Amino acid sequence: MTCAHCIVDIVPNLQNQLGEISQPKSCKFFLGGTENDLGKNELLISKIHIFKEFAQHPKTQDGYDFAIATIEKNSYIGNKIIPKSLNSWWGCFEDLDIEVNDQICILGFPNNKDLDNIVLCGVESVIAGITNSFQQDQRKLIMFNGSIDQGMSGGPIYLIKNKRYIHMGIVLDGGKVNAQNMQYGMALTQDIIAWIEHHLNNGIVP
User: Fold this and answer.
1) What is the mean pLDDT of residues 40-62?
2) Which SUPFAM superfamilies match (predicted)?
């Protein structure tokens, strides 16, 4: 699960690419890395399904920006693909505690900073100005004080509960984003669980 714009080249009208996409964006941009090792880190994506009712991206007309991808090359994604440069706009190596529904979550990769083949994400990054407590309507929401920085897109947010990491959501493009169910730059897994289950049950994700 990740942002559509991490794995699909931005086009004026993403609606034309809804459903299965046969020619996704090169995964070397999706996974990050340095110029010298991009070729080593590249994986093949065979299918992409975009969720058309969630998470608008400001650079597209229709703005659908949440996707599930199938990896053609079934290999383990280890920490060798984690970006090495702090100046590459691919983020920095630190975790940040944030609050979701009165529970503390971590923005970034858990523990050894390895990913698995289900929660595939582009980067880990944090920026200054993220507040930990606030109230909006009747729910606690993620509030980013300012726009989300480039490089955060696609990163997972985990909740630590009973010494286990629970996947809570995906960091999306922030700042100008304004869509229904949009949690200030974050897509909550619970809001789209039915859509995820549908594609899992239909063999979209290995």
Assistant:
1) 55
2) Trypsin-like serine proteases
Q: Which residue carries 């289950």 as its tokens?
A: 197
What the block records as the tokens of 90 is: 């691919």
Coil vs helix vs strand at 30: helix
Dump pLDDT digits (tens) for 140-185.
233 333 334 445 566 666 665 676 666 667 766 543 334 333 444 5
Domain span at residue 58 reads: 4-201
Determine phi and psi for 182, rounding to 5 degrees: -85, 125
Residue 165, token pair as written in the block: 């990491």
pTM of this structure:
0.51
Tens digit of pLDDT for each residue in 83-139?
Answer: 333 333 333 333 444 444 444 444 444 443 433 323 333 333 332 223 222 222 222
Closest among 174, 193, 183 to 137, alpha carbons compared: 183
* Separation of first and last alpha carbons in the chain: 12
DSSP, collapsed to helix, strand or coil, labels residue 167 as: strand
The conformation of residue 26, written as its DSSP 8-state character, comes to P
Q: Is 81 part of any domain?
A: yes
Task: Give the pLDDT confidence score for residue 16 in this predicted structure.
Answer: 44
Q: What angle do CA 76, 79, 81 make, to 5 degrees?
A: 85
The total number of structural domains in the chain stands at 1
Radius of gyration over alpha carbons of the chain, in Å? 16
Do 126 and 171 contact (CB within 8 A), yes or no?
Answer: no
